[in-house]
Amino acid sequence: MAWREQVAAERRASFADQVYWGRPVPGFGDPQARIVVLGLAPAAHGGNRTGRVFTGDRSGDWLFAALWRAGLANQPTSTAADDGLELSDAYVLAAVRCAPPQNKPTPAERDACAPFLHQELGLLRRVRVVVALGQFAYQAAAAELGLRPRPRFGHGVEAAAGEYTVLCSFHPSQQNTFTGRLTEPMLDAVFDRAKELVAGSD
Fold first, then answer.
1. Residues of the chain whose pLDDT is less than 70?
2. Domain segments of the chain: what residues?
3. C-alpha to C-alpha distances, 113 to 60, 62, 105, 106, 171, nearest whole angstrom
4. Topology at the third CATH level for domain 2-198
5. pLDDT digits (tens, 9 = 90+) for 26-61
């Protein structure tokens, strides 16, 4: 908590003229969504700056471009909370709501934020698919949904948890996208599968 506020006060030089959000970052998207995208935590100079999860950082560039290609977003980029981005049948949130040091949330932080995840998912009554971006988010989703047995995390792995399906993807971090561990076709395939799973679910 103190760290996110310190970042908001000190700011990165390229954003020195901006007022950072510097508070917990809620989810964003279509309240009637059938697909939830679960990330790790707001980036220090991304969601912690803009106040909207995945907005204004490189991971978000990848994510929103993929959602746009899948027909789940009205534009391929997200740079600010008031940039006109709208999601359709998708909702994006994070397992941890405050930006952590080195963008690496801890299990303790995940556990502390679990009640907020529970509450927000509970309000999204049409959700049928949870796309977990990375192993950390997968662990949060599995705990929240009571996933038993819990398959080992891997890109494209899917598992049923009651009325939900958890669908795994590597996180669109620079570490994964710069090295080719995650490619655009790989991410597109995950959202294509998510759309298949919710087709005819109502």
1. 1-19, 21, 202
2. 2-198
3. 21, 25, 11, 11, 19
4. Uracil-DNA Glycosylase, subunit E (3.40.470)
5. 999 999 999 999 999 998 777 878 889 999 999 999
